[in-house]
Design goal:
Helix content: 25-40%
Shape: globular
Structural class: alpha/beta
Strand content: 5-15%
Number of helices: 12
Radius of gyration: 19 Å
Low-confidence stretches: 1-54, 368-377
Mean pLDDT: 86
Order of helices and strands: HHEEEHHEHEHEHEHHEHEHEH
Number of strands: 10
Largest sheet: 8 strands, parallel, barrel
Length: 377
Amino acid sequence: MRTTPTPAPRRSRIRWALTGLAAALALGLGAGPLGAAAASPAPAPARDAAEPARAAAPAAGTPVGINGKVRVCGTKLCNQHGKPIQLRGMSTHGTQWYSQCIKDGSLEALATDWNGDILRVSTYVQEGGYETDPKRFTDLASRIVDQATARGLYVIVDWHMLDPGDPHANLSRAKTFFTEMTKRHGSKGNVLYEIANEPSGVSWSRIKSYAEQIIPVIRAKAPGGVVLVGTRAWSSLGVSEDGDEKEVVNNQVSASNIMYTFHFYAASHRNEYLQTLSRAADRIPMFVTEFGTQNYAGEGANDFAMSQKYLDLMARKKIGWTNWNFSDDHRSGAVFKEGVCSGSTWTGTSVLKQAGVWIRERIRTPDDFPTGRPRTP
């Protein structure tokens, strides 16, 4: 959850039988009369990159085809029928380093071989990221959103601020980024917006102030989009800086359709973190947008026993999650073996590190609290 060593820092399911048409209508992706679904589409006019893409109807049986447009209801993320669901998937590494790992083939594997539900697209602000070339990194994030959407996946647009830890330091950049991303994708019902990856060294009131300035920017073009708000102390609900969930529970962001984020690394973050997440999830909507089975740097030995305790809790309470990370970085937290991203083979376990084999199995395998689509053993 903190800055990590060089070379490249870490950073960091009930089936609802819907036809593709019904899902498209619920998502607002297939506007027009019912009969239009059967008609041959007219050739699409060329569009500017800044214009919103017209997404095809999600295929029946995909996560989006099953669940449609998501929203927050009570303390849960719910599908278009108001039923609580748990989304499970992967987070990219920083796209300034590992965009080569996010290809049609790798996303097809995540969607069909892994049976994933969701992809988190991590756009670093510093460390050679967005601030160096805003257009390039906005276009890159947008392209990945379109690729994931085409496969019926949900997508988290992650504003991966890390250092400086005060989100206000990048407020102007964040407004520009989310204005552009919602202009392009705000009509999509599968896109969620994570507005501050890991705030640190600042008070919860300052993070809350930032959120209350960014959320209206998102709402302008994505009025129904779920917004994910980072919490204090590297999104630990304050635990890593001697706090706890009460600071958020007792002083919530003044906005609707939002969730709060929590990050953990199982080899470093033990029962105090686990119990904090458990208590918080009973009071406020929570989403674990980043976790690993290793230490807080995303490296070292895997602690699968502690990781399973977290997964069991998240399954019971239907807390969605994305695992760090979907790349071939040399660290143990990257799911692919080094060099895989330069090739063309993405499926099966031979291309995966130990952590990749473990997390793929848990995304694929049904648990005692299934949500989303059935999992393939």
